[in-house]
Structure formats: C-alpha cells, structure tokens
Amino acid sequence: MPRNLPRQQSDLLICFAVKEEAKFFKPVETGEFEVLITGMGRRNASESIRAALPIVQPTLVLTCGFAGGLNPKYPLGTVLFDEDFDAGLSGELTDLGCISGKFHCAKRVAVTAEEKNDLWNSTEADAVEMESSVIRTICREFKIPSATVRVILDDAHLDLPLDFNALMTSEDKIDYAKLLWAVMTSPHKIPSLVDFQRQTVLASQKLASVLHDVLKARLC
User: Of 30, 67, 194, 209, which has the fewest Cβ atoms less than 10 A away?
Assistant: First the structure.
C-alpha cells in the first residue's frame, strides 16, 4: 500500500510525483482538494492512484509536476496542459498563459539534448514526463475526467547535470548515496547542479502560481 494516501473525500485530487514539484503549492481560500504524492515512474503512479481514487472519489484529477522540454520553442517555466474533453479547464489555463500541448510518458528520464531531440522527432510530443499517461488511463477506467498540467523544467536544448537514471533504486526512487558519490567523483558538475536546483525552484513556483489561480477561478 502506498504511503501518505489522502484520508478523505474531495471533488479534486491533485497528483505530483515528488514533493519538490509541490513545494510552493500552498493555496489558500481555494476550496477543498486532496494532494497525492505518487512517487516517480509508471509503477509508483499506478499503485498510488489506484489506492487513492476509492478514498477520495474525486470528480476531477490533475496530474502535475515537472516535464522535460522536447519542442525547442518552449523554454524553462512554460506551463503545458492536456485535458479530457469534460475536464473543463482549458479556458482558465489558456487565460493564464498556459499552452495546450502533447506529452510523452517515458519509462526513463530523458537526460541529454540529443535524447530529447530523438523523442521529439519520434513522438511529436512537446514535453516528456513519466507518470501522467498512467494516471489518466486509470482515471478513465473509473470514469473520472482528468488533465495534465506540467511546467518545463529542462528545455529541449539542455543536458541534465547527471544521468538520474543511474541514480535510481529498483523502486524508482533517488538513491542519495549514489547521488553523493556521483557528486564527489565529479566535482566539476557542482555548478551545473546548483543551476539546476535554481531551475527547480523557479519551475515549482510557476506551477504553483498557475494551480493557485486555477483553483481560485473554479470557486468563482
């Protein structure tokens, strides 16, 4: 059974893969909702959403977080979305400057600009992530409308500072011992890691701002 499951019913369930994506999502006076941290990857997302839906019984599910850019025209901080026809969010999201886009749900982190370019050419997707397709497929099984709302963390031109795939455990979690070792053995990458952390903060703040405004609009 996944940990940290929601404990009560709510009309809205908002999913993030990791806590860092939800760090600045602390809206006030935006109505009732439940947050689910699913964990990274398809397996964790599947287990978490299947466990959460019977508890929360939402009428709408959002799968949110970071995405890697595949379309070169979308820079860091661009918020892309894709929704079911009956989710009813496109108007609010478009008004907030978000862009309707296509997502590719991958089994591994796209690390290099070359890898992202290959994915863009093969999938014609605007961004890549690792959970949303699974979550939304399961929502359709439960006949619950859903939408993907994701912010570009690393654009199509950017190589990630580390190969995060090599730092994963068998449960698709970051192995912090491996991360520490990778940093210790490659100290020249520390400036890039610091820059990447700054990008993470900026992207999380932008996503939180959009979600906050969307929830406020739903109350009007």
Answer: 194
The type of residue at 195 is: D
Ranges of H-type helices in the chain:
41-56, 90-95, 113-123, 132-141, 176-185, 190-219
Q: What is the pLDDT along the chain (220 residues), one digit of tens a residue?
A: 565 777 778 899 999 999 999 999 986 555 678 999 999 999 999 999 999 999 999 999 999 999 999 999 999 999 999 999 999 999 999 999 999 999 999 999 999 999 999 999 999 999 999 999 999 999 999 999 999 999 999 999 999 999 888 888 888 888 889 989 988 898 998 999 999 999 999 999 999 999 999 988 776 6
CATH superfamily of the domain spanning 12-219: Nucleoside phosphorylase domain (3.40.50.1580)
The whole-angstrom separation of Cα 37 and Cα 166 is 22
Instruction: Check if the beta carbon of residue 84 is closer than 8 Å to that of residue 138.
Output: no
Long-range contact set of residues 136-140: C-beta below 8 Å, sequence gap at least 24: 136/61, 136/63, 136/84, 138/46, 138/49, 138/50, 138/53, 139/49, 139/53, 139/61, 140/84
Which residues, other chains included, contact 5 with Cβ-Cβ below 8 Å and sequence gap of 6+?
Answer: 36, 48, 51, 52, 55
Is the distance from CB of 11 to CB of 74 less than 8 angstroms? no
Backbone angles phi, psi at 167, to 5 degrees: -105, 5
